[in-house]
Amino acid sequence: MDRLDNTVRDYAWGSATAIPELLGRPATGVPQAELWMGAHPGAPSLVARADGPVGLDEVIAADPVAELGAASVERFGPTLPFLVKVLAAALPLSLQAHPTRAQAQAGYADEEARGVPVDAPHRNYKDANHKPELICALSEFEGLCGFRSPAGAADLMASLGVPGLDPLIDLLRSKPEQEALAGALAGALGMTDAAGRETVAAVARAVTAAAPADPTGELAGYAFAAAECPGDPGLVAALLFNHVRLQPGEALYLGAGLPHAYLRGTGVEIMANSDNVLRCGFTPKHVDIPELLEVVRFEGGRPEVLRPEPGPDGERLYPVPIDEFRLSRYDLADRPATLPGDAPQILLCTDGTVELSSGGQVLTLRRGESAFLPADGAETVLTGPGATVFRSTVTLG
Fold first, then answer.
1. Among residues 264, 279, 326, 391, which one is catalytic?
2. pTM, rounded to two decimals
3. Residue 114 catalytic?
4. Which of 52, 92, 174, 314 has the fewest CB atoms inside 10 Å of its own CB, making it the most exposed?
5. Would the CA dihedral through 61, 67, 68, 69 be positive or negative?
6. pLDDT of residue 340 exceeding 80
7. pLDDT at residue 275, as a whole number
């Protein structure tokens, strides 16, 4: 077992307090957005070795089978197939969607062939992998996820009384679902001329005025986005998406093509190892509308809020339809929990103190601390009444 020394990313949308509080450190006043745990080359976790700290990516590369297990290497290759984060949002993240693996492979190959530098700001595909995600709330967590039904989106827009939205409302009420949602998204993101900017401003005023009387609380989320992203046509696009509020312990799975944005809150996020993001609003970064329209799934409906399913030995699993990652939670009481050792694992303690025992080694994790467990076949026993531990691993077989 290796205790992880993890990087904190200080993106502008991050909370100045949530991650320092989790780690038991004083806040610096600088936004701290993401705590990364894993072997992603952009910010690999460090582990202690005799000659000093070493990146987890280097440790795995030196002996993938010993660290990941033969089954994982055969299934997913010689790298850790997932990345774990604590995400702490105080401001909205960009509206975005992620490609399928086939779309990522094709897009990456095309940009490589055209000689687009990987670090170019207008590049869409940083790698050839897909990027499904799961976010599990640690605090109340607010976001946007998936399209409303065309009728529901039209009703919301109509309730605002903004004449500039009438063409989108007519489209949503008159066309088949896929055509209606695709046309409305393209139309919303195209509101960049003078008339479009006035519509965006009018929507911002309308949601702000109506939010205090909205019993659902949805308009408060849109008003928050309007205040933090003034003039962004993504606000109109956001009206097409479901507003979601997660309570601690609830989760969302975000598959390929599902448009989404996190607005505010703290959660544990796990994803496949990829940087592929197609943005569509709430961002100063590159927005490629034609490519976005190729990636997004234009299907209406409420997203499923995941609640953990009970498993063996106290495990509570968040089920997902892929194998690259598997997230579960242990709320330890008086009885220890035993974890199998057949796959690579990252354990994160989010409450209390937990003792890990495996193969004669003992490691204690306090709140905010994490560890990497190699696939060496040895079981690991968790002990720590009152502790909460998130377990990230893969599904084999």
1. 279
2. 0.95
3. no
4. 52
5. positive
6. yes
7. 85
Range 27-50 average pLDDT: 95
> For residue 285, what pLDDT is reported?
86
Mean pLDDT of 31-44: 95
